[in-house]
# Entry
Amino acid sequence: MTGPPEWNPGETRASTPAGSFAIHHLRNATRLNSGRGLLARVARWLCVGALAVGAAYCAEADPLPLTGFNMAGAEFGALPGQAGKDYFYPSQSDVTEMLLRGANIFRLPFRWERVQPKLGAPFDAAELDRLTAAVNMITSKGAKVIISPHNYARYQNEVIGSPAVPIDDFAAFWRQLAAHFGDNSLVVFGLMNEPHDLPTLQWRDAANAAIAAIRASGAMNLILAPGNNWTGGHNWNDPAGGASNADAMAAITDPQNNFAYEIHQYLDADYSGTHGECSSPDVGEKALIGVTQWLTKIGRKGFLAEFGVSTNPVCLQAMDSMLYFAEDNPQAWVGWTYWAAGSWWGANWFSAQPREGVDPPQLSILLNHIAKH
# Structure
């Protein structure tokens, strides 16, 4: 299997007309509006109908360059927990299963406190070895891996930027982590999972400090910077936390200009990912319109690092439609990782991991959006 496509965050991938002239322009006419839209669905219905009678020239926009899965498990369990019992790094068989399906990027959640049991101290050697082994197992196959502390902008339940967890300690953590993984260009640095309930400007300053520390280590890797308020696309422009993500996160600074914004988007009624039903088949498209407009305006890329649905038919349609929307806006989106895969995720309603040789409905849809390489 070849490695994942290279991507420069300053680049914009132009859409290539892949179908008939009329259908291509119908789709282009709906960019940034397809969440409201009849035209987008008409275009897809026309394609489906044409393909049904053998018109193979009719095609959707290309899949985004980076597509894959969250490999849940290493963030599980109470602290400190026992590896292999309370929490689990991904197995080679689980990763291989998804590589064979075409995935070229995996997001690897872990707990900050396990890697660094004492704030500001050297890393725990055994836990770092476990994390490193999982990273090397994935990247040895030519895939990218996003390492992501699953801590919600907290350490031992204390907020980053508080007296208990100074921003300098968060930056020092990332400098140490970047020094360890920076020589592997396939490693992506996801600064933090879902910051919430802290001032947005405080989180923005912490993110900038971490980026500066990563670059000071000499690491050139791609960085993913999430926003505040669970980094939801649907509320990117809302002024919660004293400032909207749109206002605050536009000031993210990277000396290497090698970063993207990490966005999460669940599709249930309150966008929390805690319900099995979705309000409408176009809820995902609508949720991404505002952040897509913002990314386009400032000339940056977004990465949809978490989204997941149950097997509810409306939710499956909503996910499919959201991914088509992202593909129709490649000037704003570079890729996605579905939540979640891995055997340890079990029979959870979000799981995309095949079980006993059977693909769950979510995986069947995701395979239509996997980057071919």
Q: What stands out?
A: The chain has a mean pLDDT of 86. The chain is about 35% helix and 15% strand. The radius of gyration is 20 Å. Residues 62 and 327 are 7 Å apart (CA to CA).
